[in-house]
Amino acid sequence: MTRRFDSFVILAEMRTGSNLLEATLAQASGVNCHGEVFNPAHLGGPKVKTVLGMTMADRIADPEALWRRIIAEPGLNGIRYFHDHEPRVLDGILNDPRCAKIVLTRNPVDCYVSLKIATATKKWRLGNVKDSVTRQIAFNEEEFGAFLAARQAFQLRVQRALQVSGQTAFYLDYDAVQDVGVINGLLGFLGSEGRIDSIADSLVRQNPEALEDKVRNYPEMEAALSRVDWADLGRSPHFEPRRGAGIPRVVAAKGAPLLYFPIGPFDDTPVRMWLSRLGGGGLDEGFTQKTLRAWKRTAVGHRSFAVLRHPVPRALDAFAMILRRDTDAELRSRLRKHYRVPIPEEDGIAEMGSAQFRDAFRAFLGFVKVNLAGQTGVATYPVWGTQWAQLEGISGFVPPDLLCREDRLEEDLARLAAAVGAGMAPLPPPAASQTPFPAEEVCDREIELLAREVYRRDYVSFGFGDWR
Questions:
Q1: Structure confidence by residue, pLDDT tens digits, 273-290
Q2: pTM for the full model?
Q3: Cα 227–232–238 angle (5° rounding)?
Q4: Residue 309: helix, strand or coil by DSSP?
Q5: Using H for helix, E for strand and C for coil, what is the string for 355-375?
Q6: How far is 220 from 176, CA to CA, in rounded Å?
Q7: How many whole angstroms separate alpha carbon 360 and alpha carbon 355?
Q8: Nearest 10 degrees: CA dihedral of 141, 146, 150, 153?
Q9: How far apart are CA 452 and CA 448, in angstroms?
Q10: pLDDT (tens digit, 9 = 90+) per residue, 427-446?
Q11: Number of alpha helices (DSSP H) and beta strands (DSSP E) in the chain
């Protein structure tokens, strides 16, 4: 009898119960899950050096070769894949009807809180309840918005890939992972003759306390979540429409019908202050597509804008941000280990001299060049992506009326204020640079030419000349 599937993939995220699902499936004869072999930081675990004869360097050079080896193993073999894993294998996996798709979800608030606790305690798995560690975390609305958007976009990509290829997936949520009947149904879906009698007991549920006991600023979290436009996302694979326009980041002036679409990285504090002073009304933020459409209907004669920056200082800000943010420590490690970006170890970053910083920035631009071409195992972060791509997403909702230029921002904003009949408020001075060295000291002719190669689309699309 021909087997229905040759392989399987568990499409999940951190803190969704995928470890327990993997351990439980392993109890069924002939079913083998190789874990997070396409994790950008390791081959399924920090101590794993090889998988099926391939090293990390081998996987980076040819990730599809590792997937082929997994499929070729005896039995029914699969992996766990998260939204930020090796992007070059995803299309092949999703488009293969002989690869079974298992979509595992969890309420995103529970998932976010659990991830924050695990990050703070460094306790990612629990085998004995005696070893449990508790910790209260602080909910951050902006951080949660980015967390949710990345996972929604991934779910939508998976959903569309299955729809256009005529496939269906086996959907289950966090609670169902502990249901023997559901897991046996999943094994039947996979075409396995094996069945289980119990859920794997090698792992213990972490942090089972109520959310209000785990979140330090619980009332603030409740208020923030009331502004999210969703409907039981953890129970359904159908997330709200893609927010490629970055709707939650949109800012409107309360005193004038003017809308601002931020494009990062850019310390836009002066722009926000200017908006808040138009009519003296402050700012409207935290939009959803529904509330933004309502705003547009009532704001007769409204205008919208975004601010373009020259690619050289923008890329420099992106690199400085990556060096500065605690949340990018793992990314820095990947760049250092696998992409030859000479970033010092964590305790040496603050001691970098200008020449050392310039060398690291130059290497970072080289990494971005191959990353934008889809030739790395690291997902493309918006912070270093092209402005063209961000504007394409914005235009999917509504094209901005005006693309302002950073170097003539005051003049452009004056035109916008006049267009909506608002008095011109003075533009505050630019925010202080957060790069460790002035751009003039770091960005030489070589970096200018490299930036032209990396951001050719931005240079051509928006008519940028040399920065210096």
A1: 999 988 777 899 988 888
A2: 0.72
A3: 105
A4: coil
A5: HHHHHHHHHHHHHHHHHHCCC
A6: 30
A7: 9
A8: 80
A9: 6
A10: 888 888 888 898 899 999 99
A11: 19, 10
Number of Cβ atoms within 10 Å of the Cβ of 213: 11
Supply the mean pLDDT for the chain. 88
Q: In whole angstroms, what is the distance from residue 341 CA to residue 372 CA?
A: 16
pLDDT reported for residue 248? 84
Q: Which residues pair with 170 in a beta bridge?
A: 102
Residues in the chain: 468
In angstroms, what is the C-alpha Rg of the chain?
A: 24
How many Cβ atoms sit within 10 Å of the Cβ of residue 238? Answer: 12
Q: What is the pLDDT of residues 321-354, one digit of tens each?
A: 999 988 899 999 999 999 999 999 988 999 999 9
Taking the C-alpha atoms of residue 342 and residue 428, their distance in angstroms, rounded to an integer, is 37
Reduce the DSSP state of residue 451 to 3 states and report it: helix
How many of the other CB atoms lie within 10 Å of CB of 446? 11
Q: What's the whole-number mean pLDDT along residues 135-153?
A: 88
Contact 9, 93 (CB under 8 A): yes
Rounded CA-CA distance 354/331 in Å is: 22
